[in-house]
Amino acid sequence: MTGRRLAFNYPSTPLHGRDRPLSASPQTGEKKLLNAISGLSRRLTLLAADVNKQFTVVNSRLPSIEDRLAALESKNCVEETNSKKRRRVNNPKIAEVVRRLHNSETNCRRYKPEQGQTSPHNEAVTSYLLGAISASPDLHDVDNDTIVSACKTYYETVRKNFKYKQPDLASRAEAVKSSARSRSRRKRLLEARQSVLAEDEVDLWKSASVDLMSDEEDGIVDGVSGWIVRPPSFRSQELTELCAKLQSRLEAIPKYRATHHRRLQNGPNSDRRPPVTYSSEAANGHLTVL
DNA sequence: CAACTAATCATCCTGCACTA
DNA sequence: TAGTGCAGGATGATTAGTTG
């Protein structure tokens, strides 16, 4: 790019005699003025040329500066995530590699869940896994922190399994299992109802969550086994009515009736507590005012 | 037996409390 | 303040059970 030239059309020869005081005659004043303009013009031209030159220099250096900045930014980004020493890898591939290696029949170095993560034995297992995985040709570009994070996560899995196998935690383990079962029932219920939603019900339904669905507990009524329904106490009347409407819509479908457990009767309200992380916006119209 | 639903299990992840 | 332990929960694969 070339700078814009400031083109002044000044006379190449003086129009009249020079160096006369401005006040001496109109012509002399005009000449002085023209000279001044001419000088200014020259200086402006030089300035423009200089600025232009500087721009050219800057422009020529810009690409390399941009490249270096981009490189720096990406490096910073990687370092930032690394520096957090992420506890979780969010990298299923690495997680699976760790699991496979740890559980492979030929591996005799496994985590001892009865010991802490930092016990000498478990640290040694982590080092072994790290060494073996980072030596793998197709994984050599994976950074060590990612592998170590995956190892720690897997250690936690092993430890949790071990913990709930302890006899003194049997009832706790059962409670965990039962709560998971209940949650998955509520999730299925939410999805089933969602599938028969009408246009004008969408708004009210929008933020309905699994927590706002009833619990379905195993039960037998008049010799028929099925579910006892326990609605959450914190659900609004409005949403309760919509749930009932959706449910009867579902049960009007022969296939649904035939393939799903029967909801035998309503039991007492669920003793679950309202979800604590429920936004006020979502709660609007869904929760009863307590 | 095929087509489903429901349950179970292993794994991974989030988020919080605690502490060295 | 980073690392650890842990509870709760999401997800996906697999298995069990049911029904036409």
Order of helix and strand elements from N to C terminus: HHHHHHEEHHEH
Strand % is 5-15%
The strands making up the biggest β-sheet line up spatially as: 1-2-3
Overall shape: it is flat
Uncertain runs with pLDDT below 50, 5 residues or more? Answer: 1-26, 58-84, 278-282
Region (Disordered): 1-28, 257-290
InterPro entries: DUF4616 (IPR028101)
Pfam families: DUF4616 (PF15394)
Write the layout of secondary structure elements.
Blueprint: H1 26-83, H2 92-103, H3 120-135, H4 144-164, H5 170-194, H6 202-205, E1 215-221, E2 224-230, H7 237-251, H8 254-259, E3 263-266, H9 280-283
Parallel strand pairs: 2-3
Antiparallel strand pairs: 1-2
Helix pairs in contact: 2-4, 3-4
The chain binds a DNA duplex (20 and 20 nucleotides) through helix 2, helix 4, helix 5 and helix 8.
Description:
The protein is mostly helical and 290 residues long. The chain folds into 3 domains: 1-84, no CATH class; 92-164; 184-283. The protein has 9 helices and 3 strands. The chain has a 3-stranded mixed sheet, with helices on one face. A hairpin with a 2-residue loop joins β1 and β2. The structure holds a DNA duplex (20 and 20 nucleotides).
